[in-house]
Amino acid sequence: MADLYELILDVDLVPTLTGDELAELRWHVGETPQPDRLVLGTDRFLPAFPLGDPTDPDCEWQTDDPQPLFAAEPDASEAALTSRSPDGWHLTARQDLHPDQFPALRAFLDWLGPRASTPGPIGHLRWHEDTDSEPLLVENRTIKLPTAVIDHTQDLPW
User: What's the pLDDT tens digit per position in 109-130?
Assistant: First the structure.
């Protein structure tokens, strides 16, 4: 049994996105290679593994490379970023996510909330065996986080 969640996003974004933000968004949807700078925060909580005894203060650690949220597994995702000039941008995405990806998702949703151009529903998160989904709602320029994301990321220093 897989521990997968379906994420659906369909959101209009403000026209004031910076060049760095657009570069990272394009990477996340699979349009471009990884930019030199990741500014959305999706690389804040990458898994790290000890290369020796982790209790040794001199132990070196290896950190996983950042992965695009919507393009890492092409068979499990569809995503697009389109221009709605002069009114902004439109992001659509469908992605199967494992809870290990929830820290990056939470950082992305925290970044996305203030950049959504309209309040209200912008998608949902659904565990793959459930028929019910939890809506993603923009309220007061923040996205109400789904319970599963909160449960899997509550111990991180937000």
Answer: 999 999 999 999 999 999 999 9
Query: For the whole model, what pTM was predicted?
Result: 0.88
Angular region, 17: left φ>0, alpha ψ -120 to 50, beta rest? beta
The domain of 21 spans: 5-153
Q: Are 148 and 21 in contact (CB under 8 A)?
A: no
- In the chain, the number of structural domains is 1
In a domain, 70, yes or no: yes
**Low-confidence stretches of the chain (pLDDT beneath 70):** 1, 72, 74, 76
90 inside domain? yes
Return the C-alpha torsion angle 53, 55, 56, 61, nearest 10. Answer: 60
